[in-house]
Amino acid sequence: MRVAGRVAVRGFTLVEVLIALVILSIGLLGVAKLVTGAVHADDSAYMRGQATQLAYELLDMMRANRPGAIAGYYTGTPTYADCSAAACGDQTVALLDLYNWQNELSVALPAGTGTVTMGTDEYNDTTATITVSWDDSQAQWAFGTAPGVTPGAMTVTLESIL
After folding, report:
1. Contact, 97 vs 104, CB < 8 A?
2. pTM for the model
3. Which pLDDT tens digit goes with each residue over 42-73?
4. Which residues contact 55 (CB under 8 A, 6 or more apart)?
5. How far apart are CA 88 and CA 81, in angstroms?
């Protein structure tokens, strides 16, 4: 088809198609980076929720064994005890609770550890401080930790009156 001495061109040239594909590819890479960041943020939030839940779980165990908690048995070295054959005392139950809790931490969180410290407040009430730590370096690197900075462990601390 000729229009006033020139050829009318219809459709796209190969160069235009290639440019459109490059622009589309760059956009899809950006979307992939956003999705990856969202997945890491979701994992980090999940681990923070797990740590909080596990801290509350130990606090509930301490309240169920209040005499053992007030005596400070939850700050000892956790040991396994079989309480199915004979009744266990407050100290044995506390150390068994702590043993099971430490195992749950190591399974639920990467490099998960926990500590318990006891104290008293200004009203002479017994307080418990439960600290849960884990390695969240994968999410911290994904969020752009500065070069040369080693990401530290994440920590959740729960303090409550028994």
Report:
1. no
2. 0.72
3. 788 888 999 999 999 999 999 999 999 999 99
4. 114, 130, 131, 132, 156, 157, 158
5. 8
